[in-house]
Amino acid sequence: MTIEIKVPVLPESVADATIATWHVKAGDSVKRDQNLVDIETDKVVLEVVAPADGVISEIIDDEGETVLGEQVIAKLDEKGKSASSSSKSDASTKSDSDKAERKTESKPAAKSEGKESDIKVPVLPESVADATIATWHVQPGESVSRDQNLVDIETDKVVLEVVAPADGVVSEILAEEGTTVGAEEIIGKFKSGAAGGESATQSTASDDEEAADDDNDALSPSVRRLLAEKGVDPAKIKGSGKNGRITKEDVEQHLKSDKGDNKSAPAQADTSTANLPTGERTEKRVPMTRLRKTIANRLLEAKNSTAMLTTFNEVNMKPIMDMRKQYQDSFEKRHGIRLGFMSFYVKAVTEALKRFPEVNASIDGDDICYHNYFDISIAVSTPRGLVTPVLKDTDSLGMAGIEKGIKELALKGRDGKLSMAELQGGNFTITNGGVFGSLMSTPIINPPQSAILGMHKIQDRPMAVNGKVEILPMMYLALSYDHRIIDGKESVGFLVTVKEMLEDPARLLLDV
C-alpha cells in the first residue's frame, strides 16, 4: 500500500513553506514516527514523520522548493519492500516528470518555432496582494534554454522564479526591476524556437563556462542563499546531486576542505599607494530570511502604530542573589533544575499585572480588552532571529514550573521546534538584554500587547544606604508602554511594584 507524505496544514497566517532538509532519500527504509523532512515557514520549522514502517518509494519535491499546505511531497511503500535500482530509477524519472508538469502548468505552453508568448507573474499566495520585480537574469534579444530562470519576483514572504517555457529568445521586457506587479500580470515577451542576437557569441563560449551556467540555473534557492552568505563561487564546487546538481552538503564540504586555504597575503608596502586602503575590501549582499522580514515588519508596525513611551527605574538585586545562594542546591535537588533570575522576574511581573490590569490589556479597534489571565511572552534569541514564545497561566505556576517552562521554550527556540500555539498570544513581554551585557535600553512593544519590560546587566555600583555609601549589585529596569491605553500613573506604579517585589522577595509569598 502506498501512502502519500504531505505538507502539514499550515497556520492561518502562513501562505506557503520551503523544503528545508530531507533526512531520507528514495529507497530508504524508515520506521514509524521517524523524522523524514524539515519544512520551514516564516515562523517555525515543521517536522514531517513517517506514518508507518516502510520504504520511501519517491521524493517529489527537493530541498529549497516552495510548497503549500497538504501538498504531496513524497510517497511511502507501507509493505516495506526494498526498492531495487530499477525501481529507484523509475521513481526518479517519475519525480522529474511530475515536477516538470507542476512547474509548467501555470506557465504558457511552448509555442511552435518563432511564435511569441507572454511571460507572466505566477499566481501569488492567498495573503499576498502584489510583488516586486527583483532581478532580471536576461536581456531582450538574449537566447535562453527551457527551464532557465528568467526573473526573480519578490513578495513579502518568498522569492518566486519565472522560468523559460521552452528554448527561445526573450524578445521584450515590459516591467523593469523594482516595478510592483500583480498576479498573472504580463511582464515580458518570449519567442520560442528563435535565435537571439547573442547566440553566436554564446556558442563560442567554452564547455566549462556552459557547464557552470547550467549548474547556476539548477541551484535550489536554499543552495543559492548559502553560496551568497559564504561568498562561494559555484563553479568551484563539484555537485553530487542528480545531473551534477550542487547540494547543501556539497557546499558545506567545500567550505570545510577550503578552510584556511584562501588566506590573503600580507599587504606589501608601496610608496606610490601609501594613501590608498590596504587589504581586502569586500562586501556581500544576503537576502533577508522570512523570519527576519517578519521581525522587521512587526517592529516597524509597533513604532508606527503605537504611542510608545519608556519609563525607567533601578533595583537592588542583592536580596535575590542572597536567596539564590542560600537555596540553590536544595532547590536543584528537589526540582531537578537550577534556580535562575527569570522565575523571580516572571513572578514579580505577574503580581504587578494583577494590580494594574491596564498593563495586561490591549486595544482592539475602539475597545479596550482586559485579559483576566496571565500569559507572558519571553523574548528568546535564536540562530534564526528573535522569537517570543509564551509562558501561559504564570499565576498558577511555582518557581520550579516557571524555570522548567522557560528552559523548554528556550531549547525549542534554539532547535527551531517551537509550535504555532507556543508563539501565539501573550499579554505582556519580558526581554533580558542583560545576558548580552546591555546596561540600559528602550525595548519595543510586541503588538498587540501594550507593554514590555526590559531587564539589564547586574552591575556593582556605589549606592547611598542610610547615609552611607555601599557597593550593591544594581540593575536598571525599563518599561516601554503604549500611552494610548496606559497612563503615566499606571506605568510608574507597575514598575515600582516590580522593583519592590524584587528587592524584597518575601512580598511574593505574603502578597503585600
Automatic annotation (TrEMBL):
**What domain of life does the UniProt record list for this protein's source?**
Bacteria
Cofactor dependency: (R)-lipoate
A GO molecular function term, named singly, is: dihydrolipoyllysine-residue succinyltransferase activity
Domain Peripheral subunit-binding (PSBD) spans what residues? 218-255
Reactions this protein catalyses:
N(6)-[(R)-dihydrolipoyl]-L-lysyl-[protein] + succinyl-CoA = N(6)-[(R)-S(8)-succinyldihydrolipoyl]-L-lysyl-[protein] + CoA
Every Lipoyl-binding domain range: 2-77, 116-191
Q: Which intervals of the chain are annotated as region Disordered?
A: 78-123, 193-286
- Residue ranges spanning the membrane: these are none
Record bears the keyword Acyltransferase? yes
Print the keywords alphabetically: Acyltransferase, Lipoyl, Transferase, Tricarboxylic acid cycle
Class of the enzyme per the UniProt entry, highest EC level: transferase
Which residues lie in Acidic residues bias regions?
A: 206-217
Q: Which range is the signal sequence, renumbered to this chain?
A: none
Q: List the Gene3D superfamilies.
A: 2.40.50.100, Chloramphenicol acetyltransferase-like domain, E3-binding domain
Instruction: Determine if Acyltransferase is one of this entry's keywords.
Output: yes
EC number in record: 2.3.1.61
Q: Which pathway is recorded for this entry?
A: Amino-acid degradation; L-lysine degradation via saccharopine pathway; glutaryl-CoA from L-lysine: step 6/6
Q: Which InterPro entries match?
A: 2-oxoA_DH_lipoyl-BS (IPR003016), 2-oxoacid_dehydrogenase (IPR050537), 2-oxoacid_DH_actylTfrase (IPR001078), Biotin_lipoyl (IPR000089), CAT-like_dom_sf (IPR023213), E3-bd_dom_sf (IPR036625), PSBD (IPR004167), Single_hybrid_motif (IPR011053)
Q: Which family does it belong to?
A: Belongs to the 2-oxoacid dehydrogenase family.
Q: What does this protein do?
A: E2 component of the 2-oxoglutarate dehydrogenase (OGDH) complex which catalyzes the second step in the conversion of 2-oxoglutarate to succinyl-CoA and CO(2).
Identify this protein by name: Dihydrolipoyllysine-residue succinyltransferase component of 2-oxoglutarate dehydrogenase complex
Task: Give the originating organism.
Answer: Alteromonas ponticola
As recorded in Swiss-Prot or TrEMBL, the protein's gene is named odhB
